[in-house]
Amino acid sequence: VASDAAVLHELADALDLRRPEVAYDDPARGCLRRVAAGQGVLRAFLLTGDLRAQEALLAWAAGGEAPASTAALLMGRVAGAARSRTVCVCNGVSEAAILKGIEQGCDLAALKDTLGCGTGCGSCVPEIRSLMTRAPAAALA
């Protein structure tokens, strides 16, 4: 839809990603995947529609190594681009994000506040509680 493509381009503009170093876009499907980086440092990224590269890009942003091929990463063709299972469909929250929150000491209320999971229809709350009980005891302390 034309208006959706316009919104995506406005978002890219707001993040100064109109002319990124690497891009893999499919606006007709609602996908914009763009990276602004230089000299091995990630400055910004935008992923819409296809989030497979999210974990690898977040790791890079946190000081990890740059991928061997950013273009291949955005196309989902390298290790580290595996998609985590979505637990909260209403807010698009992955199992990996929930487990990371649990590891950081979040209880259910904190997960709802920080990630937004369980705040829509609520059908994911039992799964979130299950993940909390399966988390290592050290993570819950």
What can you tell me about this protein's structure?
The protein has 141 residues and is of the alpha+beta class. It is 40% helix and 16% strand. The protein is built from seven helices and five strands. It has helices spanning 2-14, 54-61, 70-74, 95-103, 108-115, 125-134, 137-140, and strands at residues 22-23, 32-38, 41-48, 86-88, 93-94. A three-stranded antiparallel beta sheet has the order 1-2-3. The longest helix has 13 residues, at 2-14. The protein is globular.
**Cα distance spanning the termini:** 48 Å
* Oligomeric state of the chains in view: single chain
The helix-and-strand class reads: alpha+beta
* Beta fraction: 15-25%
Question: What's the gist of this structure?
Answer:
The chain is an alpha+beta fold and 141 residues long. It is built from seven helices and five strands. Residues 137-141 have low confidence and may be disordered.
What structural keywords apply?
141 residues, two-stranded antiparallel sheet, globular
List the helices and strands and how they pair.
Blueprint: H1 2-14, E1 22-23, E2 32-38, E3 41-48, H2 54-61, H3 70-74, E4 86-88, E5 93-94, H4 95-103, H5 108-115, H6 125-134, H7 137-140
